[in-house]
């Protein structure tokens, strides 16, 4: 039996009902939303009714969400394929004791956070300097979670930044590091190399390039390097003093690591105080996730809406649409968080999944997206559930009129997706403009919006470190809940390994040291053409 059978039956029985019909109940908006602190999560503009919600909550209970949640926070090794605990939450919760393999991990976590704070203050106050003066710029070199998390959060909290300018390099494409370093002074630049193993090929290649760039003007380049790594032997071989090496355990996955030393660049930018507020916002969401009933629990509800849209209704993608320019990198961050976590094809026991796993996640900030891909969302042939995020208040008081226009656009888009525009309405609009006959009918059809397209809205007061922490934790827990319901492991990522292994094997083929025997014909032909072009 498919675990979604009862939901599929209910969806089939109500498939012809318009979402607008559900609003005949004046209380729908209140009854199909949930609040926590400054957050309001409105999912009333979906086709979920009381029966569907009851079935979804029952599904979460049946799949053991509460039990798995307790196991995660207690340090159980719920990442079964790697035999690891999942404890990114300890970096922000400061619990009295959390044990892994019988050892309390909290003293080490607190000590590392203390060292990070001391180093950040030294850099920000000028006690730690480059070989040409106070640090003016920080270059964080990482990839995946070692880049996306701090890059997203630093941009999101740019209005709080009063430290050195932070730059982020991730792509092994030499253009990325070349263009980033081009405008910087090696004598006043701090480079952070973020790689837990200190072997990630993209990161270490860029680190070597940065060291050569710095060595051209600085006598001791390694003195202006810090490392986020647990491989202290490799960081020492690179020349980085142990006092500037900040490690974390393997029970923190890369895409969940912004709370850990991976967030050092963010701490340098906004200061330890604001970084602590960022932690506090996430910790508050953690408590809500652990304590609120499932039917009133924001992460659980966000996950259940996702399950309804993807596994039940068959919508293969979802768009994340923050109406907040400083959250411009949030869709990319969530794309990795969700697709690397729940892009799996087998259940925990290794059996093929009998249903789809995670959706394709994508998006851009509003209002830019309205002039790009919203056409497809409104009038395309596929339904794309939308997740809007918007702050009631902007951070620029003298530009509040622009923020109100931004908010109006956000609410208008969700309303337009819901109600659409009928042929009769489109015809009447054009008739008033003077069109008649066959041309009136033809033009009117192009202006029909089918509507009945689902969306959710996450409303908050203002983007602050505390709020951002809550948003990220909300989505982390959403991924966890969806993974539990799907019966998959959200905390490994074997799908990234094969391509990396093959890339290493292809390097000698591209250089001509190997003839590529064993490679497919297309790969050999492409490699040969690349060699020919490079040699021409």
Automatic annotation (TrEMBL):
<dbReference type="GO" id="GO:0097367">
    <property type="term" value="F:carbohydrate derivative binding"/>
</dbReference>
<dbReference type="GO" id="GO:0051156">
    <property type="term" value="P:glucose 6-phosphate metabolic process"/>
</dbReference>
<dbReference type="InterPro" id="IPR023096">
    <property type="entry name" value="G6P_Isomerase_C"/>
</dbReference>
<keyword id="KW-0413">Isomerase</keyword>
<dbReference type="InterPro" id="IPR035476">
    <property type="entry name" value="SIS_PGI_1"/>
</dbReference>
<comment type="pathway">
    <text>Carbohydrate degradation; glycolysis; D-glyceraldehyde 3-phosphate and glycerone phosphate from D-glucose: step 2/4.</text>
</comment>
<dbReference type="GO" id="GO:0005829">
    <property type="term" value="C:cytosol"/>
</dbReference>
<protein>
    <recommendedName>
        <fullName>Glucose-6-phosphate isomerase</fullName>
        <ecNumber>5.3.1.9</ecNumber>
    </recommendedName>
</protein>
<dbReference type="GO" id="GO:0004347">
    <property type="term" value="F:glucose-6-phosphate isomerase activity"/>
</dbReference>
<dbReference type="InterPro" id="IPR001672">
    <property type="entry name" value="G6P_Isomerase"/>
</dbReference>
<comment type="similarity">
    <text>Belongs to the GPI family.</text>
</comment>
<dbReference type="InterPro" id="IPR035482">
    <property type="entry name" value="SIS_PGI_2"/>
</dbReference>
<dbReference type="GO" id="GO:0006094">
    <property type="term" value="P:gluconeogenesis"/>
</dbReference>
<keyword id="KW-0324">Glycolysis</keyword>
<keyword id="KW-0963">Cytoplasm</keyword>
<comment type="function">
    <text>Catalyzes the reversible isomerization of glucose-6-phosphate to fructose-6-phosphate.</text>
</comment>
<dbReference type="InterPro" id="IPR018189">
    <property type="entry name" value="Phosphoglucose_isomerase_CS"/>
</dbReference>
<dbReference type="GO" id="GO:0048029">
    <property type="term" value="F:monosaccharide binding"/>
</dbReference>
<feature type="active site" description="Proton donor">
    <location>
        <position position="340"/>
    </location>
</feature>
<dbReference type="GO" id="GO:0006096">
    <property type="term" value="P:glycolytic process"/>
</dbReference>
<comment type="pathway">
    <text>Carbohydrate biosynthesis; gluconeogenesis.</text>
</comment>
<feature type="active site">
    <location>
        <position position="500"/>
    </location>
</feature>
<dbReference type="Pfam" id="PF00342">
    <property type="entry name" value="PGI"/>
</dbReference>
<keyword id="KW-0312">Gluconeogenesis</keyword>
<dbReference type="InterPro" id="IPR046348">
    <property type="entry name" value="SIS_dom_sf"/>
</dbReference>
<feature type="active site">
    <location>
        <position position="371"/>
    </location>
</feature>
């Amino acid at each position: 039996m498919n675990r979604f059978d009862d939901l599929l039956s209910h969806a089939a029985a109500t498939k012809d009902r318009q979402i607008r019909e559900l609003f005949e109940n004046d209380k729908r908006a209140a009854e199909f939303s949930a609040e926590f602190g400054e957050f309001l999560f409105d999912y009333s503009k979906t086709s979920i009714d009381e029966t569907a919600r009851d079935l979804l909550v029952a599904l979460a209970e049946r799949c053991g969400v509460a039990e798995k949640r307790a196991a995660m926070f207690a340090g159980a090794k719920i990442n079964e394929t790697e035999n690891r605990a999942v404890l990114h939450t300890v970096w922000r919760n400061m619990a009295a004791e959390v044990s892994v393999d019988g050892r309390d991990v909290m003293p080490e976590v607190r000590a590392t956070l203390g060292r990070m704070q001391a180093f950040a203050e030294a850099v920000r106050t000028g006690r730690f300097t480059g070989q040409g003066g106070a640090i003016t710029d920080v270059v964080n070199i990482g990839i995946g979670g070692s880049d996306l998390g701090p890059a997203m959060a630093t941009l999101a909290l740019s209005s709080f930044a009063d430290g050195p300018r932070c730059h982020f390099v991730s792509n092994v494409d030499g253009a990325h590091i070349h263009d980033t370093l081009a405008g910087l002074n090696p004598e006043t630049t701090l480079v952070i190399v973020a790689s837990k193993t200190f072997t990630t090929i993209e990161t270490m290649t860029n680190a070597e390039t940065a060291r050569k760039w710095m060595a051209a003007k600085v006598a001791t380049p390694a003195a202006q390097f810090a490392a986020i790594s647990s491989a202290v032997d490799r960081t020492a071989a690179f020349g980085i003093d142990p006092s500037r090496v900040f490690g974390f355990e393997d029970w923190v996955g890369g895409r969940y690591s912004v709370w850990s030393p991976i967030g050092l660049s963010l701490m340098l930018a906004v200061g330890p105080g604001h970084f602590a507020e960022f932690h506090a916002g996430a910790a508050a969401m953690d408590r809500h996730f652990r304590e609120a009933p499932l039917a009133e629990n924001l992460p659980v509800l966000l996950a259940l809406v996702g399950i309804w849209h993807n596994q039940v209704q068959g919508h293969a993608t979802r768009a994340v649409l923050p109406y907040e320019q400083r959250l411009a990198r949030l869709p990319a961050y969530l794309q990795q968080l969700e697709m690397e976590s729940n892009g799996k094809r087998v259940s925990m026991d290794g059996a093929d999944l009998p249903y789809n796993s995670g959706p394709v996640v994508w998006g851009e900030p509003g209002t830019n997206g309205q002039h790009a891909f919203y056409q497809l969302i409104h009038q395309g042939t596929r339904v794309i559930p939308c997740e809007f995020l918007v702050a009631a208040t902007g951070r620029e008081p003298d530009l509040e009129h622009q923020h109100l226009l931004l908010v109006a656009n956000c609410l208008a888009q969700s309303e337009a997706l819901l109600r659409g525009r009928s042929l009769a309405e489109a015809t009447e609009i054009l008739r008033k403009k003077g069109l008649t006959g066959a041309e009136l009918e033809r033009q009117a059809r192009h202006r029909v919006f089918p509507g009945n397209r689902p969306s959710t809205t996450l409303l908050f007061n203002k983007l602050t470190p505390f709020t951002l922490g809550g948003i990220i934790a909300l989505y982390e827990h959403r991924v966890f809940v969806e993974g539990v319901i799907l019966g998959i492991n959200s905390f490994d990522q074997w799908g990234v390994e094969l391509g990396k292994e093959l890339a290493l094997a292809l390097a000698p083929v591209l250089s001509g040291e190997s003839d590529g025997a064993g490679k497919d014909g297309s790969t050999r032909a492409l490699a040969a053409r690349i060699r020919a072009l490079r040699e021409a």
